[in-house]
């Protein structure tokens, strides 16, 4: 296992780290250029904007965690009919074929004739051209990201819920605890390991925003420069502009940023995550 | 939640000009079942379907085995540099996946596995995500259960197989679902490694239906619907079995 | 946890990786043998357009009439991933024997010596560059060596919707229209039919479809002939950009946001736009749309002069191909009159072989297809340098603010030109 990981994954990461100190153009050999790429990174305003976009996107997608906990608890209630059916419904957003579902969402967010704006018009709001306007485009992408993440969160959280011993609920019911009390004092605390996992994964996935942005907006969209994410920038440098050295530098930035966030989460883990001892 | 799917289904039964018309057509009138037939003309659907099935089965089986071992090791065993190795494993999740593409391609090339199912499957059976996922699950299991088994004279292997694995069944089934979905929808890697149309999974076949300037969206929608359906059916069946499995394993905590 | 054996093998093979890398750069003299009817080989042919697969299969069948023992396998990869895959293969010496190339990416592959020169085919008389538009031959020539056989010639012309023109009481476009004619007509149609959501003109604001053409028509240029300076800040080029800004400001065209939201072909094909600049590839799509019976084509209007860019794909051969003679034979056949006419008959755009273009014209007799083919006479090659994609990204980043009127066109053009000049200077180093 570890050797497989080392060969297929750690070796590429290590070579990317090396290439971030080189000027490496596609097909050509890499020549060592020291910190040049990193100096460029510090001055690159596109990187700042991409970082802001990435953080905003991740923030919105994280709303899927509290939402997921509540929904997972609702569909996992003992005795609920069709609980499997509900799970399937939520899973559907996760199994969607990205290419097809992006087209559906693109139609829904259309400024003139989209369903979203039609709903908004019912409450008297004049909706924008979502996918053609700065910030709104990012918001639209985040909503779709949230929709997909919710499906993922619910699968994990529902699996976590099934691991909570039923006796705890029975005992607390004998003590006269109501549904809400049980949710607060049993479900949420015992679910914290799963919540922690979902949090870590959502943050990592949020920082790696790329596919969704690419297929919802398409690379030639005029708001793409204001909406692009760090990984999009990485992709452009590595595979479109073919400046693979600088692309590697952006990849390193992404690694370091996610690394910091993730290690902070692990540091704070003990404060709120309850493992049954 | 399901509206986008319903619309996808409607689009798959519309004509292409209805799909791209403005204002949008919500109901095609005459249902275009022929779109589904055209999928078979456009790509070798059945061949690619079987490729998808086989890579998904192999990757899922590989991940369940390797990730449960790795997860148990990270969660419960004491070995040198455990935290460092765990951190390195997590770091894999933190770089854009395209970083792996060219190096992995060259490894698969050196192994002579380009354009083979093994080549598509191999990197994907090692999963940092799965290892992390199972680690979290094993950490949630009470230590007492393990100690009790040890007192009963079980060796570490027996503890793992007879005590721990049954306890993490919900985790394994969730991981299986996630791996199946990921593998089924995985596009870039199989696309790069395979060159022969009949060795490609469905996602690659579907993607090739998109043109540079023009795309027949109706056929694309029909093909996507056909590709998602088996996964959905599988999941509906698995729902039952997973729940039954948990109930019959007598797992109460 | 135990280490199994297989991963060790992997480690060892991974160590051998450093031996892989860039390809050779030297261009050697062409003394390679050519294929004949006895040549036995199996070659791969990579394309990105799935629609072309069935007609290309017919081309292969015809090819096998001459070369019965050369087996050609088509590989389709969608455009979005085509060049990512090609790059991976190029870095690993596993490029397909024959593959489709566009002018945007051509220089990267040419520069790194990955493409086989066509010199042997030209010397043997199997291929005569004068059979193709000069602009396309120029696009695929690197260091005075022709490296690709042009496959199609995508010029731009103007679609219009007769019905909408009639409803607005405007005369339909003719081939001698000027910019003023277009502006007046577009404004009138938007005024008359705007309440129904109809615009005078909608065109995707890309270089190829929109502003490269108007820049040329205004007498400007995008890139100097020596590929060292940007032409975006040339006063005439600024006028060519201003053309679109004005149309948007007057409401004759949808806004930048609307166009991002709904691509121009969707608007035109749904009867929401009376005019559209688009390429020769759009014929099949319009033909299938609800406006098929009321649409027709005219040449692009003239500004100071006539101008249009032409781009086209080419068939190239990998220099590392193990079946070079067979690959070259197929490449030559793809560009031959016979091969080109099979493709042209399928309505998939304008063939590059000049004498075959009549087949394309005849493929949709209800439309004035000559508007596309005649444009070849005054067409300029799609502008490229070694780093085209890098300055194309700058265009995507900067120009929308000029078209939307948020910033003066001249300011944006100046910034674009100076940043593009930096890139071009870095490229020359």
TrEMBL record, chain A:
Q: Which family does it belong to?
A: Belongs to the binding-protein-dependent transport system permease family.
What protein name applies here?
Answer: Sugar ABC transporter permease
- Family matches, as Gene3D superfamilies: MetI-like (1.10.3720.10)
Query: What InterPro entries does its record include?
Result: ABC_transporter_permease (IPR051393), MetI-like (IPR000515), MetI-like_sf (IPR035906)
Q: Which UniProt keywords apply?
A: Cell membrane, Membrane, Transmembrane, Transmembrane helix, Transport
Where in or outside the cell is it found? Cell membrane
Record's GO cellular component terms: plasma membrane
Q: What Pfam families does the database record attribute to this sequence?
A: BPD_transp_1
What broad class describes the main subcellular location of this protein?
A: membrane
Q: Could you tell me the membrane topology recorded for this protein? A: Multi-pass membrane protein
Automatic annotation (TrEMBL), chain C:
Protein name (database record) = Extracellular solute-binding protein
Signal peptide location in the record?
A: 1-19
A GO CC term assigned to this protein in UniProt: ATP-binding cassette (ABC) transporter complex, substrate-binding subunit-containing
Domain of life assignment? Bacteria
* Family (UniProt): Belongs to the bacterial solute-binding protein 1 family.
The protein's UniProt keywords, in alphabetical order, are:
Signal, Transport
GO process annotations (BP): maltodextrin transmembrane transport; maltose transport
Q: Which GO terms describe its molecular function?
A: maltose binding
Listed PANTHER family: MALTOSE-BINDING PERIPLASMIC PROTEIN (PTHR30061), MALTOSE_MALTODEXTRIN-BINDING PERIPLASMIC PROTEIN (PTHR30061:SF50)
* Lineage per the UniProt record: Bacteria, Bacillati, Actinomycetota, Actinomycetes, Micrococcales
PROSITE patterns for the chain = PROKAR_LIPOPROTEIN
Kindly give the Gene3D superfamilies that the UniProt entry links to this protein: Periplasmic binding protein-like II (3.40.190.10)
């Amino acid at each position: 296992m570890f050797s497989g990981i080392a060969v297929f994954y750690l070796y590429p990461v290590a070579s990317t780290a090396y290439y971030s100190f080189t000027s490496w153009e596609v097909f050509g050999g890499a020549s060592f250029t020291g910190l040049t790429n990193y100096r460029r990174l510090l001055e690159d305003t596109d990187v700042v904007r991409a970082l802001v976009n990435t953080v905003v996107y991740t923030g919105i997608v994280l709303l899927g965690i509290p939402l997921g906990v509540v929904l997972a608890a609702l569909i996992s209630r003992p005795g609920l009919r069709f609980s499997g059916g509900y799970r399937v419904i939520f899973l559907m957003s996760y199994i969607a074929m990205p290419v097809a579902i992006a087209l559906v969402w693109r139609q829904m967010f259309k400024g003139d004739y989209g369903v979203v704006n039609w709903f908004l018009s019912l409450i008297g709001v004049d909706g924008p051209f979502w996918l053609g306007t700065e910030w709104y485009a990012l918001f639209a992408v985040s909503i779709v990201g949230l929709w997909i993440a919710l499906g993922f969160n619910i699968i994990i959280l529902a699996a976590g819920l099934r691991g909570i011993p039923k006796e705890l609920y029975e005992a607390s019911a004998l003590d006269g605890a109501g549904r809400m009390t049980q949710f607060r004092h049993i479900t949420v605390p015992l679910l914290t390991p799963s919540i922690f996992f979902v949090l870590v994964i959502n943050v990592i996935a949020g920082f790696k925003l790329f596919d969704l942005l690419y297929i919802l907006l398409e690379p030639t969209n005029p708001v793409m420069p204001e909406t692009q994410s760090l990984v999009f920038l990485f992709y452009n440098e590595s595979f479109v502009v073919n400046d693979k050295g600088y692309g590697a530098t952006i990849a390193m930035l992404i690694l370091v940023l996610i690394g910091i966030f993730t290690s902070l989460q692990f540091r704070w883990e003990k404060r709120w995550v309850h493992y049954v001892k | 939640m399901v509206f986008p799917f319903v619309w996808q289904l409607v689009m798959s039964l519309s004509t292409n000009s209805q799909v791209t018309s403005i204002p949008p057509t919500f109901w095609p009138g005459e249902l275009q079942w022929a779109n589904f037939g055209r999928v078979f003309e456009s790509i070798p659907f059945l061949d690619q379907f079987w490729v998808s099935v086989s890579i998904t089965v192999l990757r899922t089986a590989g991940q369940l085995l390797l990730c449960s071992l790795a997860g148990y090791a990270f969660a419960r065993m004491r070995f040198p540099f455990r935290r460092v190795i765990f951190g390195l494993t997590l770091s894999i999740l933190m770089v854009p996946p395209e970083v792996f593409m060219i190096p992995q391609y060259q490894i698969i090339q050196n192994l002579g596995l380009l354009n083979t199912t093994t080549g598509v499957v191999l990197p994907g059976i090692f999963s940092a995500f799965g290892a992390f996922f199972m680690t979290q699950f094993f950490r949630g299991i009470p230590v007492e259960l393990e100690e009790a088994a040890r007192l009963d004279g079980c060796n570490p292997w027996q503890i793992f197989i007879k005590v721990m694995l049954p306890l993490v069944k919900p985790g394994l089934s969730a991981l299986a679902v996630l791996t199946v979905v990921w593998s089924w929808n995985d596009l870039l890697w199989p696309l790069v490694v395979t060159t022969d149309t009949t060795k490609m999974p469905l996602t690659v076949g579907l993607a090739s239906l998109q043109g540079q300037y023009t795309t027949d969206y109706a056929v694309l929608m029909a093909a996507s619907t056909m590709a998602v359906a088996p996964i959905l059916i599988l999941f509906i069946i698995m729902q039952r079995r997973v729940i039954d499995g948990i109930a019959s394993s007598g797992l109460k905590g | 946890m135990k280490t199994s054996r297989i991963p060790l093998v992997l480690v060892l093979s991974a160590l051998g990786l450093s031996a892989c890398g860039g390809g050779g750069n030297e261009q050697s003299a062409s003394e390679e043998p050519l294929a004949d009817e006895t040549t036995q080989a199996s070659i791969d042919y990579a394309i990105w357009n799935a629609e072309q697969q069935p007609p290309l299969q017919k081309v292969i069948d015809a090819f096998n009439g001459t070369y019965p023992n050369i087996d050609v396998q088509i590989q389709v990869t969608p455009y979005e991933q085509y060049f990512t895959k090609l790059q991976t293969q190029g870095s690993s010496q596993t490029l397909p024997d024959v593959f489709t190339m566009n002018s945007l990416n051509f220089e990267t592959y040419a520069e790194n010596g990955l493409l086989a020169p066509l010199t042997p085919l030209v010397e043997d008389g199997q291929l005569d560059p004068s059979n193709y538009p000069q602009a396309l031959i120029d696009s695929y020539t690197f260091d005075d060596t022709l490296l690709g056989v042009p496959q199609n010639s995508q010029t731009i012309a103007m679609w219009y919707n007769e019905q909408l023109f009639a409803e607005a009481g405007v005369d339909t476009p003719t081939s001698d229209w000027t910019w003023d004619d277009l502006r007046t007509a577009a404004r009138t149609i938007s005024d008359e039919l705007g309440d129904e959501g109809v615009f005078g003109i909608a065109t995707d604001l890309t270089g190829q479809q929109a502003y490269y053409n108007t820049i040329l028509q205004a007498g400007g240029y995008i890139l100097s002939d020596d590929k060292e300076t940007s032409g975006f800040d040339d006063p005439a080029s600024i006028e060519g950009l201003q053309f679109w800004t004005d149309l948007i400001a007057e409401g004759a065209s949808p806004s930048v946001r609307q166009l991002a939201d709904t691509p121009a072909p969707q608007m035109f094909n749904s009867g929401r736009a009376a005019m559209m600049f688009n390429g020769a590839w759009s014929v099949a799509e319009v033909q299938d749309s609800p406006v098929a019976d009321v649409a027709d084509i005219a040449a692009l209007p003239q500004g100071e002069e006539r101008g249009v860019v032409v781009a086209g794909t080419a068939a190239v051969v990998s220099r590392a191909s193990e079946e070079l003679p067979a690959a070259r034979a197929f490449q030559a056949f793809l560009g031959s009159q016979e091969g080109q006419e099979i493709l042209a008959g399928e309505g998939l755009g304008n063939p590059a072989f000049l004498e075959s273009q009549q087949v394309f014209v005849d493929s949709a007799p209800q439309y004035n297809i000559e508007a596309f083919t005649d444009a070849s006479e005054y067409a300029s090659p799609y502008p490229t340098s070694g780093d085209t994609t890098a300055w194309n990204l700058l265009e995507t980043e900067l120009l929308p603010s000029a078209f939307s009127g948020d910033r003066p066109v001249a300011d944006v053009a100046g910034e674009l030109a100076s940043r593009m000049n930096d890139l071009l200077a870095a490229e020359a180093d």
